[in-house]
Amino acid sequence: MYSIAIDGPAGSGKGTVAKGLANKLNFLYVDTGAMYRATGLYFIKNNISLDDEKSINANLDKIDIKLKYKDNKTTVYLNQEDVSLEIRTEECSRAASKVGVYEKVRENLVRMQKEYAKTNNIVMEGRDIGTVVLPNANLKIYLTASCEERARRRYIEQKEKGLELTYEEVLKDIKERDYRDMHREISPLKQADDAILVDSTDMTIDEVINEILKYRKVRD
């Protein structure tokens, strides 16, 4: 099986790039961030404090997450319920970052993610794909962009969804999430030693995808 791992901070364009790349290669797209968001949503829905690691660990076996990718769209199911739209709020984004620091949460989701790679050609994106989930991936990309550009993208995205957030609030959230993701004890966000750095600040999605396809040809 052929695997492409894409890591990077929030708002760097990982999801859009990974989807586009998977479509061009006819590979399975795995959105690991959606799995963390769905996990966070479970605890929000069940009024379990995101700071209560003991209660979170005790409830992990009650969480069933399935990703189905069809017609260029990923549908996320949490315990058989379609939560694809619900997990895209800033609340779920923050929840994903909070629960993602817990070792048992990560072990649970990493196990699911590794299963996808065993039987599929995949493009998988997240925070620790090249370093932890798929350390032997055929191609590793670390996709980033400036904080300001990532905040601008997120601000536009949230505005289009009708969410009333200021650019300053989104920028603050991006910086806080970067700090949490890069400084957590378990699987911190970092560029794998053999990953290729791609800065998307001044690039279009198509330009990023074509750049990665060039790297794939060189690596193959």
Largest sheet: 5 strands, parallel
Structurally, how many domains make up the residues?
Answer: 1
For the record, what CATH class applies? Answer: Alpha Beta
Q: What is the N-to-C succession of helices and strands?
A: EHEHHEEEHHEHEHHEH
Beta-strand residue percentage: 15-25%
Any idea of the CATH topology? Rossmann fold
* CATH-scheme architecture: 3-Layer(aba) Sandwich
Q: Over the alpha carbons, how many angstroms does the gyration radius reach? A: 16 Å
Give the strand order of the largest sheet, numbering strands 1, 2, ... along the chain. 2-6-1-7-8
Which outline best applies?
A: globular
First-to-last CA distance: 14 Å
Q: Output the CATH homologous superfamily.
A: P-loop containing nucleotide triphosphate hydrolases
Q: State the total count of DSSP E strands.
A: 8
Question: Which class do the helix and strand fractions yield?
Answer: alpha/beta
Low-confidence stretches: none
Into which percent range does the helicity of residues fall? Answer: 40-55%
Mean pLDDT across every amino acid position: 92
> What is the overall number of helices?
9
What does this structure look like?
It is a single chain. Strand 3 and strand 4 form a beta hairpin. The strands form two sheets. A five-stranded parallel sheet has the order 2-6-1-7-8, with helices on both faces. A three-stranded antiparallel sheet has the order 3-4-5, with helices on one face. The protein is globular, with a radius of gyration of 16 Å. The model has no long low-confidence stretch (mean pLDDT 92). It starts with a strand and ends with a helix. The protein has a single domain (3-219), classed as Rossmann fold. With 220 residues, the chain is α/β, with parallel strands linked by helices. The protein has helices at 14-25, 32-45, 53-59, 90-99, 103-119, 129-133, 147-160, 167-183, 205-219, and strands at residues 3-7, 28-31, 65-70, 73-78, 81-82, 122-126, 139-144, 196-199. Helix 2 crosses helix 4 (90-99) and helix 7 packs across helix 8 (167-183).
